[in-house]
Structure formats: C-alpha cells, structure tokens
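Here is one chain, start to finish.
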Amino acid sequence: MAHDHHGEHTQGQGHEEDHGHKHGHGHGHGQGHGTDLDWNEMAPLLEAQAELFAPLYRQALSWLADEVAEPGLIADAGSGPGVLSCLFAEAFPGARVVAVDGTAPLLDRARARADRLGLADRFDTLAGELPDVLDQLSKPADLLWASRSLHHLGDQRAALTAFGQRLAPGGTLALLEGGLPSRFLPRDLGIGRPGLQARLDALEEEWFTRMRSELPGSVAETEDWPALLTAAGLRYTGTRSFLLDLPAPADDRTRAYVAATLGRLREGFGDALAAEDRDTLDRLLDPADPASVHRRPDVFVLSAYTVHTAARPS
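Its structure:
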C-alpha cells in the first residue's frame, strides 16, 4: 500500500500526500469521483510536496529526537518516494532506515534518492502491503513512522495494533494524521466567488469518506487518535502540530506546486464544481492570465500537520 506519501493526496498531498495526504488534513486526492489512486503517476507531485514541506518535517523530526531514545531501526510505513525516509536518515545518523511501501517504482525512487545523498549504507527498502509487510523487518522497529498511511487501511484500529506489535519494547509509533487543510490563496481572489478553497475542501472531505468506505474491511472509527493508540495497547505519549508557512510572494517552486495541486483538483472534481468555480480554476491555472497562480503576487502556502506518539510498554 502506498499512502499519501507524506503529503496531501492532492490538495496539498498526498502524498505529499497526499500524500499529498486533505481530509481536513491535507489529502490532495484530486481524483474526483473515483477513489483509486495511481501513486506511481503521482510520484513527481509527491516528491515536490515532500521537498516543499521539508521545513515542517524537520521540525517534527527534531521534536521526535527530543522525545525518543536514539533509535537503531526506523521504519517509514508508507514511505512513497522516500523524501522523508531520507530526512530521517539525516536526522538520526546512528539509525538504519527502512522505507516501506506497496509501490515498487516509488521505492526505486527512494533508493536512488538515498544513493544521491550518500545514505545508501544505512538505507533499505521493503515492498509489500501494510501492516503485514512489517513482519519482514530484520528486527522490531525502535521508531515506526506512519504519515497518512493508516487511513488507507480499512480497519485502522486493527492496523494500529499491528503497528504496535512491530515495535521493539519501549519503541515509539509516530502517527501523522490530522492537521488543517492547506491554504494557497486569499478567501477573495478578486475573480469568481469568494471561498473557492473551502468548497474544494468540502469535495475532498466527501472523496475521503467515500474512499474510506470502499476500502476492504472498512470500519468506521472516531478519529480520536490518542484513544485509538491506547486501545492498541500502547502508552500514549503526546501530540504536536507543525506549521509550514511560506508567505507571499511565492517562489517558482512553490507556485509550481500550487499549480500542480490545483490542476489535479480541477481534473478530478471539475464536473462536481459549479461552472463559476471551474472557470476560476481555469484562470488560476492559465500561465498567460495575470490572475493565475503562476503570476499573481498573493500566492502562499500555509499548512499544519499533526503528529501523535505512543510507546510500546517495555
């Protein structure tokens, strides 16, 4: 299984994300009425999002470094193309990092990234479906990171229990779920009806609910993550949110990311949008239009991700 892959699935991403990853939480599905995600096709957006969100992830990793003992083995469950897996290897120089994902071409990208960064001697990949593939780890993980991968598993409560069982005694599970939808533009754009991103958020919420309901073995669950971690037999240890604040005027990389994200939403949700909103998105995506995200001066990225931690009893 391949999650948002550290991002919002498309709104923001995965999955980047999603993911992209917004489910009020940044999912950028942009898949419209269908709920099948082509993670391999989304790889460039997933990488771009994770790279753009690296300052936020570094904050989270710094927090984890203060919260957990120096880990020997870190598993990134639902790693996607490995941007964050490599950040873990950099942040924890004494650890071996295993990028775990169900999409082999994304793991190829992860290995190539680790090679480029000189991390290959401490970097492995593991292909297979979560959570069972974690049985193939060489030993229990001291730190298991799951960034918006859990919500792609039908029975999240059972999956959390399985994650906990793959931890070493005293090991930590860090779960990135929740946060706030990303914002890229003012509420009133000066074109179209104000509140465009809020209406896109509503469509993504509907998409997310449908996606969850269609998963094999789907179980509806109140998303009280501390309670679910405790029910999984773990000792809940904390919750912290991290902010990405890239103010206007945006640089070219940020604009490209915003354009790619809105483009996926336009493609996926176009027929569910009011005609005025479709027209607004078309203008936002037209590089020749002064009102487009390629040219307008008020493009920004503001997003919050939330991480919950719990430890396996020693």
